[in-house]
Amino acid sequence: MTGPARGRARGAGGTAWRALVLVAVAAARLGAQDSQYGVRGLGTPGRWESVRARSTGGAFGPFDPASPLMEASLADVGSLAAGAMVGAAYRSVDLAGTTSALRATRFPLFTLAGRVLSRLAVAAGFTTYLDKSWDVTLRDSLLLRGVQQRYTDEITSDGSVADLRFAAASRLSRRLAIGGAVHLLTGSTRMTAERRFDDSTFQAFQQAATVRYDGMGISGSVLVGLAPGLSVAAWGRSDRRLRAVVADTTVAETDLPRMAGGGVQLLPSRKARLAAAVAWRSWSRAGPGAFDTWSWSAGGEFGGGASALRFGVRGGQVPFGPGTSPPTEFAVAAGVGRALSHGRALIDLGVERLARTGGGLRERVWSVLVGVAVRP
Length: 376
Known about the structure:
By secondary structure, this protein is mainly beta. The protein contains four helices and 19 strands. It is 8% helix and 64% strand. The longest helix has 15 residues, at 12-26.
């Protein structure tokens, strides 16, 4: 939080919601949501990668101009191009011996990029910063008029925080490109808490609120060609804070992480491309129950002309969870790309198998990804 005193004062409303959610998660049936680990913190962090990059485990993220991870890669964008992505996740959650099947569909990315001067390219678009959609159900009882009454509490959150990015990049020389961006964070969630008694003579009651979020950040990056077919990338980002507002009243201000990462790309031939990347994020700034994370990825792309075959692996840590150490994750991915209409349209298909473990919880996820890019 931005400070102990201000965090306690302004975060009273948010703390009440979080406490209720954490109690429910301890012994609850889960409804539709992206990840249970997101219920325990600010939400589920998004992936700032196109389908092409996701299909390589994220390894090509720093070098892919369609991925809103790094700006310097935009320096080589030619004509105007627009891209979008849709993803469907099929999740199996195992908590305390109880398994739940969840499903979610998202449209997490849109980009528009093009060259405005001979050495200047610009881009705008959005991606998911945090997904905050979940549904938790808790069964319990309490003593009313001397009789133990069973009830059901259902707590839901529906919404997300989007990252609106405005970026620019320039190639200063044949071997050096730089870029920077301004990020505006915006979004909202509809939060509802409802209690229903098994005895219908007791009236059910519900409390609902719309929480709006805002924030901002800046980022910068550099892309360096060390030798023919060999390049390295480095990026950094700082987001100030995420403000939560209910009915025009600020109920919480949470510090957001600083981030840094880099990658290396090797082109051994015209039809083979290999890459690896790492990233660090200081999520512990968000408060108790949040952890700094490291992530890594490695992958390759093979083919040329109208089609390409991709594969990759990634691993790392999840920023939110119980206990004293962050949960871990590991994923394998593969995909294909196809160019149509003499390269004016690109279609990317990808599939990812993800496993997350930590805090007595196991998640297994199949993700199916579809990306489309158009160059008028």
